[in-house]
Amino acid sequence: MNDERWRPNVTVAAVIEEGGRYLLVEEETAEGLMLNNPAGHLDPGESPLEAVVREALEETARAFVPEALLGLYMARFVRPVRGEDVTYLRLAFCGRVGEAIAGRALDRGIHRTLWMDIEDLRASQARHRSPLLLRCIEDHRAGRRLPLDAVSVDPSLYAPLVKG
Q: What is the spatial distance between Cα 127 and Cα 97, in angstroms, rounded to a whole number?
């Protein structure tokens, strides 16, 4: 019997729109420079809201204020070069950002931030790190919004219960 249980990689993503353009990051990946929403992994002891605020700040040098949950998304990638077969579970939030914080460096691997309109996004799909990038933006454009409290966090996340 296999003792290893399958677990998806849980990530968060920020969908940020201003004036019809979306804030993206250009980041170094195993496949080269790719485009993505500001996004990253959920850390232990961190709520999804805390994670998306942290990741957006690290990758864009801008404070992110979540306003709604767009949804939960799943995608699977097979990377033969690395021998990886990975499934991602993404919690995507939309919200707003302030101006870039002067002097704050972008996270390692992030080359730059850029604003793109929907036509440019659709035309650049070959450079998207994930098919979820465009899917989340299309859902945002369609008006999809769920309340932030749709994601519930029990206090045990911060102070784990000891059983037994």
A: 24
- Asked if residue 95 is part of any domain, the answer here is yes
- CA 138 centroid distance within chain: 15
At residue 106, does pLDDT exceed 90? yes
**Amino acid identity, position 59:** E
Place of tokens 């945002």: 140
Range of the domain at 42: 9-144
In a domain, 161, yes or no: no
- The SS3 of residue 119 is helix
Looking up residue 108, the CATH number of its domain turns out to be 3.90.79.10
Residue 11: both structure tokens together: 């990530």
- What's residue 81's pLDDT? 73
| Distance separating alpha carbons of residues 100 and 104, to the nearest angstrom | 8
d(CA 2, CA 73): 27
Q: Provide the whole-model pTM.
A: 0.92
DSSP letter for 7, please. -
* Number of structural domains the chain divides into: 1
**Residue 152 within a domain:** no
